[in-house]
Structure formats: C-alpha cells, structure tokens
Design a protein that fits this description.
Number of strands: 9
Shape: globular
Bound molecules: 5'-deoxyadenosine, iron/sulfur cluster
Radius of gyration: 19 Å
Distance between the termini: 46 Å
Helix content: 40-55%
CATH topology: TIM Barrel
Largest sheet: 6 strands, parallel
CATH architecture: Alpha-Beta Barrel
Order of helices and strands: HHHEEHEHEHEHHEHEHHHEHE
Structural class: alpha/beta
Strand content: 5-15%
Strand order of the largest sheet: 2-3-4-5-6-7
C-alpha cells in the first residue's frame, strides 16, 4: 500500500497524513528515497546556495515563538549600515553564490528608499538574484522594490491553522499573510513560503494542511524547519520539533509540490548534526548559508545555538560546500530561479 501512495500523481489529505505518520524506519526510508528520486527528476543534482545577510535583528512584531520578538529586551539589537550590506553582498558573489537574501525582522527603518537603494547598488556591483525576507510590508513597498530589481520574496505562512496562527501572532491574521503572498506573486516576484514543524499544539493534520496550502499558493520555494524552543519567549518551555517529522514533511512536500525549490534549513542542521545531509537526501535541493558578518551574526538569535553562528562565515561556507560534494552533489553556478517559469538568467 505504501508503494501505491508513493507512486501516485496526486495525494489526498488522508494519504499525506499516512505518509507523515510513518513510524517504521524502513517505511520512512522508502519515503525519503522516493522524494530523493523526484528531486533528481525535477531539479537535477545541483544544489543552489542562497547567501543570507541578516541586515537587522530589530522587529516590531511579537511572534510568541521567536527570539527576535519586540518584547525580548535581553537581546542586543543591531542594524547593519548600507555600506556594510553592499560590501557583504559583493563578498558573497565573489564566493560563487548567485542569490543574496536580505533578511530582517519587521524593521521599518529599512524603508522603501533604503531597500531600493540597496537593491540597486547590489545589482550594479554583482550579478546576483535578490531575495527579500523582510516580513509583512506595504503593497506599495513590495511594488517599489520589484521595480528597483528585487527578484524574489520569502514570507513564511508559519502555520496553515487559522486559530493557531492567531494564537502565535496576536493581531495578525493568516488571511492577511496569504493576501500578501498572492499580491507578491501577482506583481512578478518568485515567492517562497512554508511553515515550522513541531510547533506547540500543532497536529499532523495541520502539517498536511501546510503542504496543501503550499500547493494552492503555487510556490516557487517551500521551506519547512523544526520549531526550536527559544529562551526569553512565551514558548520557551515547550518541546522543540523533531528532525524526523521535519524530514518526513520535506519528503512529502517534494512528492506533492513537485517542481519547487526546497531548502535543507539551518534549523534542521541545528537539531541534527547531519541535518543538511539528511534534508538533501529527502527532497531538498537548496541550502541557505548565513553569511552575516561578525559581530552581528551571533545576535540574530531567532532560536538558541544556531548552527554556524559562531563560525567565520566564509570558512563555514567552504565546509558546507564540502558536505554537499561529499553527498555526490554539485554546487550550482546559476541563480537557481523558479523551476516553474521560463527563467533563463545567466550569470
Ligand atoms: N524555531 C525555529 N524557527 C523559528 N522561526 C522563528 N522562530 C523560530 C523558532 N523558535 C522562523 C520562522 C520565521 C523565521 C524568521 O524564523 O519560520 O519565518
Ligand atoms: Fe519578528 Fe519574524 Fe521573529 Fe515574528 S518571526 S518576531 S516577524 S523576526
């Protein structure tokens, strides 16, 4: 029966739940192997690197699970200067990485003009794709940044369960987040979203809905990382999510979503010492190394003990490249645009 499900073109919610519930190691391996096979079919052997610059750890939101939440007064806050950001972007492209991700909490200091300036300057100096990951911003800002040259926007839906979403985010609504994702797509961004696995009160059924929501949104990238309980947050005493369930989710996502980029996340690599390898062997084709310079990188504490946060960014990227090559995979020398569209950007 498992083989039948794994070979189906379209999976029902019940079948997705069956796969997510597999607890026998042999069955789980069958799931991972099938996802790996489909990853090869849809994405090939190349692994795309996306270099993240965490430009600010200041956040106006108060998501209950996150160490950057506004009410966490223990965290030392920073903002990188535009010069530092542009310099870092140049260094990343010199490492042979062709996507720069500008990531921050929801920090309105980085307004329409500053972000446009950064996009323009980075595009002048480096032949890279730019992904923005700046939280929920105004539709006018999204439009301005697209015109300035941004290529992609990453905005996780975090959970497809409307009630849990409201519990985790107070004032914010899931419907609003989905409107933002749809708008971003409608004006030409390649969009990424996804959820956390093992959040307090979340069920397997919720995770099945997360995967199906990613399908409805017709995402270009779908990211699933484990929830990691973070000190100085209201959820500090809950258990973290498991690597096993995260890997099953990624594998099922590959089977259901097909031509989509799936990252092996840093959060997975934080809770499992070979999390990236396991992720890349269970459907993932993307790795997003944190290339924020010192002294900032150790203060982007969404959750504790983030893998690599104390390491030199270029050294840890080199070791990541070795880990990927040890799996027999190649590092891509292209931008790695959406697998769904007719993008043929050369670098
Ligand atoms: N554990 C794992 N991931 C987290 N994020 C926020 N808090 C945590 C946590 N405690 C993720 C969310 C968010 C991104 C900034 O980091 O998915 O989108
Ligand atoms: Fe801010 Fe994002 Fe953390 Fe929420 S998840 S508190 S928006 S950084």
């Amino acid at each position: 029966m498992l083989d039948d499900i794994l070979n189906k073109e379209d999976l029902s919610k019940e079948e997705i739940i069956t796969l997510l519930s597999l607890d026998n190691k042999n069955d789980q391996q069958k799931l991972f192997d099938r996802a790996n096979e489909l990853r090869l079919l849809y994405c090939g052997e190349e692994v795309h690197l996306r270099g993240i610059i965490e430009i600010s750890n200041i956040c106006e939101q108060n998501c209950v699970y996150c160490g950057l939440r506004a009410d966490n007064k223990k965290l030392e806050r920073y903002r990188m200067t535009p010069e530092e950001i542009i310099e870092t972007a140049k260094n990343i492209s010199n490492l042979g990485i062709f996507t720069i991700v500008l990531q921050s909490g929801e920090d309105c200091h980085f307004d329409s003009d500053i972000i446009s300036y950064l996009i323009y300057q980075i595009k002048q100096k480096a032949n890279v794709a730019i992904t923005l990951s700046l939280g929920e911003r105004t539709f006018e800002e999204y439009r301005t940044w697209k015109i300035a040259g941004a290529d992609r926007y990453l905005l996780k839906h975090e959970t497809a369960n409307k009630l849990l979403y409201e519990k985790y985010h107070f004032k914010q609504q899931l419907s609003e987040r989905l409107e933002h994702l749809k708008f971003l797509k409608s004006i030409g961004y390649q969009i990424g979203s996804g959820s956390m696995i093992g959040l307090p009160m979340q069920t397997i059924e919720d995770i099945a809905d997360d995967i199906l929501l990613c399908k409805t949104l017709d995402l270009d990238m779908a990211a699933f990382g484990p929830f990691i309980s973070s000190p100085d947050t209201p959820y500090q005493n809950f258990n973290s999510g498991s690597a096993e369930l995260t890997l099953k989710t990624m594998a099922v996502a590959r089977i259901v979503l097909k031509k989509v980029h799936i990252p092996a996340t840093t959060a997975l690599d934080t809770i499992d010492s070979i999390g990236r390898e396991k992720g890349l062997s269970a459907g993932a084709n993307v790795v997003m190394p944190d290339l924020t310079p010192f002294p900032y990188r150790s203060n982007y504490q969404i959750y504790p003990n983030k893998r690599g946060s104390l390491d030199d960014p270029t050294v840890s990227t080199a070791s990541l490249q070795k880990r990927i090559e040890a799996l027999g995979r190649k590092i891509s020398s292209k931008r790695g645009d959406s697998l769904k569209m007719d993008f043929e950007h050369t670098v």
